[in-house]
Queue: 2 jobs
Job 1
Amino acid sequence: VGHRPAVAAPMTIRTSTAMLVFSAIPLVIQAASVQGASKLGFAASPMLSVGARRAISLGTSSNLWRLPVRARGPRMVATDADKADKKKEEKKEGVELNPDFTFNMEDIVSVCKRRGFIFQSSEIYNGFNGFYDYGPLGVELKNNIKKIWWRDMVHRREDMIGLDSSIIASPKIWKASGHVDGFSDPMVDCKVSKLRYRADQLFYGKVELEDGEEIGYISVMESGTMQEEADKAADKMKRKAKKQGALKPVQLFEVAEAPEDVLAKIPSPATGEPGSLTPPRAFNLMFQTQVGAMSDASSSAYLRPETAQGIFVNFKNAQQTSRAKVPFGIAQIGKAFRNEITPRNFIFRSREFEQMEIEYFIPPDDDAWPVFHKQWIDNCHDWLLSIGVKENLIDFDVHEKDKLAHYARACTDVAFKFPFGRSELLGVAARGNFDLTAHAEASGKKMEYNCEDTKRKYVPHVIEPSIGVDRLFLALVCSAYDEDVVAGEKRSVLRFHPAIAPVKVAILPLLKNKEPLVKKAREIYTKLQNRYNVVWDAAGAIGRRYRRMDEAGTPFCVTVDFDTLDDDTVTIRERDSTEQRRVKIDELYAFLSKEIDGFEREEASTASEHEEAPTTSGYEGASKSVEWQARPIKP
């Protein structure tokens, strides 16, 4: 793993999930209630901190969700004091937050760790850079993303079928697709610090006065504030050189494209010394492994760097067995692996990730692909809004022709404004027929489609909508994260759309030691379990339990109190507005079905005729998810 080959540190593909579960136990407990940990019998675990074991053994109502937790792995955050120091440092250095957010990535990473969304992989061994584990809430959110994508993109369309191809396949596939020879990133080394950088993510600029006098060169890493950083570095260089006069604006260029004479003047980001960077060279991103008992060139294989090729090589099988007619698409959700030189920005760029991809096969006519391409761009944009991605945080990037892959006819990205800067979230590419043609030539098998309507055979062209599950996960958390003040108390809240929220409903008996309350609450809890992921929380004051659910993104809390025993009503507390209302238990299920699923259950259609359930305040912009329909793809 990584860009430095080392015989002493090989990568091993996991053969069992059990050890991963055991290594994550301390993190899961810290992200769960003390009462739950006590029931699991972890009070004496030596893997827990002394304070955690004491809290569990004493059976107190204190909750480990509230503890600031520091992880030992890289980039996992941190305590409130650490965040305060970080913000002071940013203010001192003049680093500005993305103006679209009132928070930064430290806040996002912190809430993901604290609430059990994401843990650093192998954390008890000080972490493993570029890999992450999804905790109890994270796996629920991730599964909801995949489930809704599959529902909307496959089940609700007549022109889509599914596939699940293998992670390891014949290396001939990657040779034919061009990955063996060309799937690489440009890399440069710092000869002094021995650090390595992606040359297309390292930028340089010339520092010169208005009269043309050259002072030197600066370098900055790619980020949303790199222009500001470059301007400040240029001003600092001018002052250090004791030069007078105004500076020309610093124009930034990729180090990957720097001429040799200029490369000798560019300083390393690590040392600031000019001439310490090596010339860019290609670094292949595929993970290599061995298949079978022999360990030689004949047994070499690769972990797939994308899911698309598995679809292309199965085109004929899938099309013929499903009797699909062009235009039609094949969808796949699956893991992919890329040996990134510099994994960064939390889960945005990691070495193991999950993709949701569609290869949509269309006729080869020149006037066909622009229409299908535009339809898929609109479809994907609308779907992102429907699940809770904020509209003001996304826009489009149309790739210029000189930036396209050699086989692509067009490509448009949906970009998201993350706290660390604006970057690609989803891509829709017109790939032509390159992949099917390449595999037909390499395998000797025809990849033609026989169109019965037009009586012609052709190799279909392809429109490819592709999005990373992990990037979408991060975009949804950034869209949902908010901080506000309720009753004079500051709270952080995740305003997930109810359909995507990891936990839909929390059941809260007012008192945990009153058997009638607990029994009635358990009845509601058991019934809702048949439809939703619900949680039971009986520990602590009711206000504290509300806050816990707010930060976990739970849209509704149902409180069972003494009035419930008299009139069979419960209190529903809505996360975003914090409004509370009393409803009959019989009406509760219809209310939740409408708010979460977008439709009323038939058995409850006559209930609540005198009172219309109001629109919840937090997701008007995202309420399309229950009404979203795929735009029809017309031949």
Job 2
Amino acid sequence: MWSSAFRGTGRAFRGTGKKANHFGQGRFARRQRSTIATDVPIQQKSVSPVRLVFRGIGYTLAASAAAGTVYTAYKLHKQYQSWENVLDAGQRFFRTMHAGALITWDYKWNLYNLDEDSEEYKTTISQIHLRTAQRMRDVCLKSGGLYIKVGQYLAAQNHVSPREYTETLKVLQDRAPHKLWPEIEQVFLEDLGAEPSKFFKEFDQTPIAAASIAQVHHAVTHDGREVAVKMQYPEVRRRFGVDMFTYDLVLELLAKFFPTLDVRWMSTEMRSVLEQELDFMNEARNAEKAFKNFKGNPTYYIPKVHWDLTAGRVMTAEYIHGVKVTDVKGFEKMGFTSKEVAHKTISCLAEQVFVHGFLHADPHPGNIFVRPNPKGKQYGAQVVLLDHGLYKQLSDPTRILFARLYKALVLNQRDEARKVCLEMGITNWKMFAMAILMRPLDPDDIFGPEVSRTQRLEMLRNREKLVLYMQNNFAKRREEMMSMMRAMPIELLLVFRNNNLIRSINHELGVPVNRFTLFARYSMKGLAASGTETLAGWRDRMNFEWKLFTMDLRYWVEGILLRVGKKVGLIPSDITQEGTKR
């Protein structure tokens, strides 16, 4: 929530007034302090009427704050029926507000009056980014639940977030805290009505996986079926109201202090999505629907739900033996290549977006497994989607518009792309295209016409200069970006998240496939399935395939040039066709 607010914000924080060296990092701490003569007698000054008025106002505000705190505590006690729960809610709230205040002041104090092009600015802002990420990580780990989910999302934004953020917060992907069995046993008893021994021959009380709002246990039913039992943490629903209040308050403060980052319009959609994710019956329905959508296609698989062992906070599904989609050594031992796995994974998710219109909105590597296809070796790898709590059903008009737009962008049909964006209510179609493709249509979209060819080449060779330039450029165009996002259909928010995670997976696998042409094929497939657009004649089909072939050929050549450039030292080793490795 705090990540993008503090990028390139040196000028935004400049203010006036004296400062205390709270962080020990400010340049003003180095100023020589003036001395006061001690032999001059101190004269008593009378308090002016104006000061008395302001003092009275201060006392009134303090009393009002105290009364508000007491009233809020009373309301929370009525809601939670326990002062222990009220204290927990208060601690989480004030922990977040305290961290937010420190983060804001850290940036404001240490970036005051610094030239953004100076070396001192670059060093200082890197240090602030690191401290900020560490504070956010600590708040997420201490608060758990929805905080972990927010931290995981920030960690996945490796194309826009500073490296300090992504490197520090990525521990949240694998270090989500879990509960001991006595702490979570009551959830099982309340939702299923009996001890695990009634339903299972074997039940491992040690979780095999832990996520932001739940953990998973391995079990074996009495008839010998292996299952995964997902159990929600007992405090998650109780904390939801306070956590969402805190989230809304953070958005309000963000809009107040940084008007160009006003994202309050996202709040209603996020609340709706998270409420659905807390209902495991809803997750089970999502899994069943996704299973039916892929029925008859052995390449993709959704674990079957055991409805008799599923309730609001407990979900039981078929256990899957496999490896994470990014575990290259793991699936290579099975005989599969990165190219095959990437192609099938991206195709699976593209089909959900463009054909089904019912998409997995959290396809991070931990939620996608690869295993040998049970139908036989000739089928190769099978992609298995897990964790179906966060899904989005696109309306047909939105799905069709998005499919038309993606097809037009990949095939470089700019007039059609501009037309579709206008139908969506978006005027800045080039910025929207860059947000979707995560790469510019033209070099000027990154550098601007004021940057010479020599400067561009220098930035492409120097990753730090390129990243800094792009961050500063984004900061300058932030208001334009936010205006564009407010104009787009709200449904596309989770499509953007899905799209970014797909890019990230392809990136981690070494970019073995061209995701743009894959998406173009599925966008065309989705349009044909809806009857909106078809390739009626053989000439249309040949033209479409020729354009995709030339794109793939160009992509292949770019890959060769990139590898050669790395070997001769012209291109940094952490640059890929998907961007910069973090």
